[in-house]
Amino acid sequence: MLHKDNCHTSSEVGHAVHDEPAIQVERLAMAFGEGPARRTIIDGLSLTVARGEFLCIVGASGCGKTTLLRLLAGLARPTEGRIDFHGKPVNGPSRERAIVFQDYGRALLPWRTVGGNIALALETCKVPKVEHAERVKQLAETMGLSHAVNHYPSQLSGGMQQRVQIARCLAQNPTLLLMDEPFGALDAITRQGLQDEVARLAQVHGTTVVFITHDLEEAIYLGDRVVVLAANPGRILRDIPVDVPRPRHQLTTREDQKFLALRHEIFGLLEGH
């Protein structure tokens, strides 16, 4: 269980999607360069994400998925348009918005243990040091890291390193979790285990999730909605609700006729663009 402290505390109730928006994106545009070299990555993109929603975004390479995530995180400023988070403009990073990158190896500090990497977020949030050991213990248990809390990143598998990065993000108690192809470099079994773990955590804590992936089945399996982006420039091609019952299971859900129909629809959209 996540505790209340100086950082924002997520709701600890069952998964629910609320009508009020967590994110509102209006006519977003992002371009790089000047003159003839100017390249528009995203153009005219508008999007609303409800509180507690698990939104997955798919699209071909170069369609602006990662750029969009960086804009939502406040790590970059748009050329045009507006992003509101809980009704307030996004003007920079916030502890309420945590981001999990694909490159887990570079995200962790190699000279810190697992516990030390998790504690980094507690230090940033100015949680009293006397509380760190218990909080780290709880987060390590949540992410299946109890046996490795004194290990260094170099001693861990890729899947375990990604668990550490997720645990560190959870230490912030974010209301929005931004995930940039977090499982793309992992083997199939490890990836599926982490998919289920992230889905469970989002449901338990009512966290809003925006999840970038190239894996169509992953997007359908995790998402309440799947947004399909077209490229050159990045724009929304289709916004598709995922009418597949929860809880979902790796074998039976992927064999569900609704799941297969969605996979066929999204694949057809991407193949045509």
UniProtKB/TrEMBL annotation:
Q: Tell me yes or no: is Membrane among this UniProt entry's keywords.
A: yes
The protein's matches in InterPro entries, at most eight in alphabetical order, are given as: AAA+_ATPase, ABC_transporter-like_ATP-bd, ABC_transporter-like_CS, ABC_transporter_ATP-bind, P-loop_NTPase
| GO molecular function per UniProt | ATP binding; ATP hydrolysis activity
Biological source species: Pusillimonas noertemannii
Q: Which Pfam families does the entry mention?
A: ABC_tran
The transmembrane residues are none
Q: Which UniProt keywords apply?
A: ATP-binding, Cell membrane, Membrane, Nucleotide-binding, Transport
Q: Which family does it belong to?
A: Belongs to the ABC transporter superfamily.
Its lineage reads: Bacteria, Pseudomonadati, Pseudomonadota, Betaproteobacteria, Burkholderiales
Statement: the UniProt record of this protein carries the keyword ATP-binding: yes
Q: Which domain of life is it from?
A: Bacteria
The ABC transporter domain, residue ranges: 23-256
Its name, as the record gives it, is NitT/TauT family transport system ATP-binding protein
